[in-house]
Amino acid sequence: MRMLLIHSDYIEYEVKDKAIKNPEPISEEEKKGRMDEVLVAFISVEKVDEKNPDEVVEKAINEIIEVAKQVKAENLFVYPFAHLSSELAKPSVAQEVLRRIYEGLKERGYNVGKAPFGYYKAFRISCKGHPLAELSRTIVPEEAKVE
Ligand SMILES: Nc1ncnc2c1ncn2[C@@H]1O[C@H](CO)[C@@H](NC(=O)[C@@H](N)CO)[C@H]1O
After folding, report:
1. DSSP state string for 42-88
2. For a substitution probing ligand 1, which of 6, 15, 43, 117 has the most ligand atoms within 8 Å of its CB?
3. How far apart are CA 65 and CA 58, in angstroms?
4. What CA–CA distance (Å, rounded) separates 13 from 30?
5. pLDDT digits (tens, 9 = 90+) for 78-136
6. Closest CA to 3 of 69, 59, 70, 74
7. For the CA of 82, the nearest atom of ligand 1
8. pLDDT tens column, 45-87
9. Measuring from atom 9 of ligand 1, which residue has the nearest CA?
């Protein structure tokens, strides 16, 4: 899994079109969204994550919360983003992994937003620009690590 973490003044998105055959069903109001004072996690779920989805979900949640505490962000935003890797997991696995990360962050008491899965979207973001405002993380299951 590859994550790009951007501490932002705001993130806003607008759904433009379907990008896969069966995108996540969304309501009219979910076609646009905005969140202010937010740590945005752009996430590409990778093929290697299919070896142990449970483990990568847990690790991703912990990594996002660790950065949220460092930058003092109370709002989080999970953004499915298929552009951080050339070894993507299939959409069905990716959608479930992203859903579990979103739910797990909410369960830990954060105010969490998400962008819909499986669409082309326009988005605007305002990065805060401080030294910890732009971070990346790579997460792999233990068994996938080469000795
Ligand atoms: N392995 C994966 N990890 C994360 N997201 C993934 C994915 N496979 C499919 N998606 C979702 O389907 C859209 C088309 O690839 C993706 N859309 C996007 O990435 C938008 N930024 C528009 O390009 C995304 O919603």
Report:
1. EEE-BGGGGG-HHHHHHHHHHHHHHHHHHHT--EEEEEE-TTS-SSB
2. 117
3. 11
4. 10
5. 999 999 999 999 999 999 999 999 999 999 999 999 999 999 999 999 999 999 999 99
6. 59
7. 19
8. 999 999 999 999 999 999 999 999 999 999 999 999 999 999 9
9. 91
